[in-house]
Amino acid sequence: MSSRLGLAAVLICATALVAGCAPQPDPTPTRTAAFASEDEAFAAAEETYRAYVDALNNVDLSDPATFEDVYKWETGDRLSGDKKALTSYYAQGATMSGASRVVVLEPVEADGALSSLALAACVDVSTVDIRDGNGASLVATDRPDVQSIRVELTSDETAESGFLVSSVAGRSGSPSC
C-alpha cells in the first residue's frame, strides 16, 4: 500500500495515477530570482512545470539515470518524496507506459516578492499506466482521466527557469477539469 501512496506523490503532476492526494505544506521561499513583473514570473513558472512534466514523461523506471532530469526541477519535500518513490519503483522492477499531457495551466497566486507562486493545472493521464514487477497495474481503478492539481513553485536563482517545483497536490475549484 505504501508503494501506491508513493506512486501518487511522485507522479500526480505528470502521471497522476491515483486520486485524492493530500495537500502539501506551503513552500518556503528560497533565493528570489529577479522578475520584472508577475506575468514574467508566471511565464517562468509555467516553463518550469512543463519541463517537469516532460522529465516525468521521460522517466524509465529501470534506469535511475533518467530520474536526474526530474530532480533538477524540484526542491524540498517534493524532491525528497520523488527520490524515495522513484527509487522504490526501480527496486520493485516497475514499468511505466504512456505520457501525461497538460491541458490547462493557469496562474493562481504569487507572493509580493515573486519568490513563491501557484498554478492550477488539468493534466490528462488517460494513457499512463504503471505496473509492478509482476505486471499488475498500480493505477487506481477509479482514477479520473484528467487530474485537477495545484502546483506550487519556489524561486531559485540557480534554477534554469528561475523556479523549482516545491509541491503538487490535488485541488478543487477553477478551472474545472
Description:
This is Lipoprotein. The protein has 177 residues and is an alpha+beta fold. It has one domain (2-170): Nuclear Transport Factor 2, Chain: A (Roll), CATH 3.10.450. 29% of the residues lie in helices and 24% in strands. The protein contains 4 helices and 6 strands; from the N terminus they run H-H-H-H-E-E-E-E-E-E. The chain has helices spanning 2-11, 38-57, 68-71, 76-92; strands spanning 95-97, 101-110, 116-124, 129-131, 146-155, 163-170. The strands form 2 sheets. Strands 2-3-5-6 form a 4-stranded antiparallel beta sheet. A two-stranded antiparallel sheet has the order 1-4. The longest helix has 20 residues, at 38-57. The chain starts with a helix and ends in a 7-residue tail after the last strand.
Detail the topology: elements first, then pairings.
Layout: H1 2-11, H2 38-57, H3 68-71, H4 76-92, E1 95-97, E2 101-110, E3 116-124, E4 129-131, E5 146-155, E6 163-170
Helix pairs in contact: 1-4
Largest sheet: 4 strands, antiparallel
Distance between the termini: 27 Å
Strands ordered across the widest β-sheet: 2-3-5-6
Put simply, the count of helices is 4
Please report the first level of CATH classification, the CATH class: Alpha Beta
Question: What percent of the residues sit in helical stretches (DSSP H or I)?
Answer: 25-40%
How many E-type strands? 6
Overall 3D shape: globular
Computed CA radius of gyration, to the nearest angstrom:
15 Å
CATH architecture: Roll
- Could you name the ranges where pLDDT drops below 50 across 5 or more consecutive residues? 1-32
The fold-level CATH name is Nuclear Transport Factor 2, Chain: A
SS content category: alpha+beta
Protein name: Lipoprotein
Keywords: Signal
Signal peptide: 1-19
Organism: Microbacterium horticulturae
